Give the backbone structure.
Amino acid sequence: MARAAAKRESADFRRQSLIEAAADCLADKGVAGTSVRTICARAGVSPGLLRHYFEGIGDLIAATYRDVTERVSRSLAAAEGEAGPEPRQRLIAFVTASFRPPIADPKLLATWLAFWSLVNTRPAIAAIHGETYRGYREGLERLLAGCGLDPAEVRPAAIALTALVDGLWLELSLDPSTFTPAEASAIAVRWVDNWLGPLQTAC
């Protein structure tokens, strides 16, 4: 039993090392410079091992995208959880977490841009992209509804806030000298206050 568990753990480690190597290659070299050879060299394994865990490089890149999105989701959830029970503070924490590490990170941006470039050509990537966007928006919808926002306004508010956060995160990750994380957070908080209006006192 112990040997089987150790073997499974070792297999999980090797699979994860390939995912992390793929993310590093995409960040450093982009899609064009990422291949089975470059990924395996980064992971320190033979090229044949990739086929043992993945159907091919496309399957590995999709698994890498999912892994990256799950890490971001965990960071957002942790920020929300640490904000305590007050609904508005949970919303603010969820929104502003994107302006701090590990989400506000030039390396993460480079990896994300590589994934985005594949959305229109890789159905698996498009599916993960759709799930990710939907999950983030639904998280905002839940938090906005918890602050008492009119149900008819929840969805458009979540869409608009998602676009605002994406734009601020993108610019902050591209050039941190443009504005500070604190300024990005203040902009997002002001937007939330303006949208909630008099309802913010009930949150």
Remarks:
- Residues 58-202 form a domain with the Tetracycline Repressor; domain 2 fold (CATH 1.10.357.10).
- The chain has nine helices and no strands.
- The first helix runs from residue 2 to 29.
- The chain has one domain: 58-202.
